[in-house]
Write a structure and sequence with these properties.
The complex is a heterodimer of chains A (253) and B (203). Chain A contains 5 helices and 6 strands. Chain A is α/β, with parallel strands linked by helices and 253 residues long. Chain B has 2 domains: 32 residues, no CATH class; 144 residues, Diaminopimelate Epimerase, Chain A, domain 1. Chain B is built from 7 helices and 4 strands, in the order H-E-H-E-H-H-E-E-H-H-H. Strand 5 of chain A pairs antiparallel with strand 4 of chain B.
Amino acid sequence: MIARWLIIFLLTLTCAFSQGTSNPAFEYGPRPPLPVFDPTSILTPDEAVKIAQPMEDLRRKEGVDVFTVVLPDLGEAPPEHVAKRFADAWGNPDIHAIVLYTPNTKGSPWIIPGGKVISLIKQELIKKSVADAQRRASLQPTPSGKVRAATEEAADLLRMWTGSAVTHGENVRDWRNTLLTQRSERIQRWKYIALAVGCSIIPLFFLGWKIRSHLAGKAPLRFPQPTYSRRLGAPFCGGNSASLDLETSSGKS
Amino acid sequence: MTHSPDTVRRTGSRRTAAERLTCPACHGSIATGASHCPSCRFTGGDTMAMFPGAPPPLLPILDVADVWNASDIRLIDAARTDVEKRFPQFRWRFCALDMPPGVKLNLLGFWLLNAAPLVPPETEQDRAWTVLLIINRSNGHAAVIPGYAAEPWITDPAWLDALREMRLPWRSGESGKAVTAFLNASRKLLEREWKNLRPSSSI
């Protein structure tokens, strides 16, 4: 009895272990040859090809991977979660965007970008760009129009962001060059200031010298006390004088 | 009285700018300490007869002839204060009056400077350092009469140069500016004279 229970326990444990460690296949199988997945044929085959072919060409030429998933509904699952599953299974790990569409659902089609390159872009910029693109796509009257517009918007965004990421290094270099230029300009400006200060020191010295002279010109000066004798019996002055006719040019002393 | 050495100078020999001492009456030469002029027998006491009556107090500005208005007086006072700050020993007095023809202005000044009562806080020493500028408005004559202590430093011809500075403003009717021109010229003369003195460490 005990042996039988032990065998059952071991089998259960083995099953559980094998369940947890295995990498189960994606429920929708391998990636389709064209980047549109529409299992319930919400789009006509012609519409699907018209949307998928340009995206496939783009992926081959530029490595920009936009994959469109059209499902009848998502149930309770958030669009980001569903898109992530498709992206993990079929998307380019460097850069991709999943365009997810469910008919008659508010907010659809969704554009969910991902990949290593996307992580280099500012999240605020991504959110705003994606929101704008989704809004423009949702304005299309037909489902296929919405999907096509969304895929084109997604492709444009990826191309733009790829360019941004590629040029990020260049931007850093430009920024560094700008800093160096600004530093150089600052040094130049300081040189001019130093020169101006240097030049102004000379007139300042001159001004200081003038002020000193001016102040020196105000210091009281005293003559030595002369010894004198009274003349003509006069107590304070002896009669020396100078006189002049102010009206004419004659004068005498 | 003590003064800082850099503002007081003394010559090695006594300065004799007024070496040629003259009689105010006849302008003949007289000797130092002479009691009367050897040429005309003039003495200081003679002026008491020439100008009878009590002399007025020798105010800084004595404008009997009403030559200067309030603005002129302010101008003169400012210039006088300025020169007195630079040369504190010197006292400056300005007198304008109308005198009849024949009155010798230098004799009148001589009399005023000697006979005018000392008004406290003026001392005898102050009076000896006084320079009197007297103007007769009637004939446009002006005379400078320095006291005993003031006369060695500026010669009579130099005083005459200072008087000449008055001419232009006086003729323009700017009697106040005429006096300030005289004061400015006098200040320059004193500056020059002070610089010419040899420095001395003792007073």
